[in-house]
Amino acid sequence: MNIIALSKRLYSPRFSGYRSLHGINDALSKTVFSGPIRKAGSFVVPRVLFVSRNLSTNVSSSKQPAFLRWYLRKLESHPFMTKSVTTSLIYMAADLTSQMITMQPSGSYDLIRTARMASFGLIFLGPSQHLWFSYLSKILPKRDVLTTVKKIMMGQALFGPFSNTVFYSYNAVLQGENSEDILARLKRDLLPTLRNGLLYWPVCDFVTFRYVPVHLQPLMNSSCAYIWTIYLTYMANQTKADS
């Protein structure tokens, strides 16, 4: 159906008169049509018809699962809290998986341990990831290979050692260890953790920094951390080191 036929169909007793029809026609010409135009009677006839970027975005987003649309809205309206809760849930799932792998046949889940892991993700790692990735995107806004390598090196040199130190110290304090015990644990566990991290995190970080939008980078990082945290929670809950 061409625009003339559409206009004639709109201009019928079901509509509120000629003036409202012109309002519809003007709105269509401003939002849907672009390019050189010509007149046909009283109505605008476009030479080029296109679907606007916003309209195409809305159509594509409407095809997304309802939960994903809800999560992306929360990520936009409450980024800090959404990322913190997401990281907490991932740490909880990772710790339960770690316990399931290492549990003896007659054993049971240590829910207090799981609560420690979840609280670390909620209180520290989720917020710190939000701030860290936002900071990196400001000082290194490009996404080329060289910039991505710089971000990876900064993560391995700064964020990784800091977050792992806090992780081991936080869990040790909640398990009742004193300062000497914590230092002994760090001497025993921190260096092997950082060394093993060099084998795992650069690949994850490259994909995250190179291809993932900034507002989704903490989610991607936490998703990669699921596998890593299975190992990390196992290390954090080993017996107390000799001080």
TrEMBL record:
Its main location: membrane. It is a multi-pass membrane protein. The keyword Membrane applies. InterPro entries: Mpv17_PMP22 (IPR007248). Keywords: Membrane, Transmembrane, Transmembrane helix. Pfam families: Mpv17_PMP22 (PF04117). It is found in: Membrane. One of its GO terms (cellular component) is membrane. The keyword DNA repair does not apply. PANTHER family: PEROXISOMAL MEMBRANE PROTEIN 2, PXMP2 MPV17, PROTEIN SYM1-LIKE. Belongs to the peroxisomal membrane protein PXMP2/4 family. This is PXMP2/4 family protein 4-like. It comes from Brassica carinata (Ethiopian mustard). The lineage of its organism: Eukaryota, Viridiplantae, Streptophyta, Embryophyta, Tracheophyta.
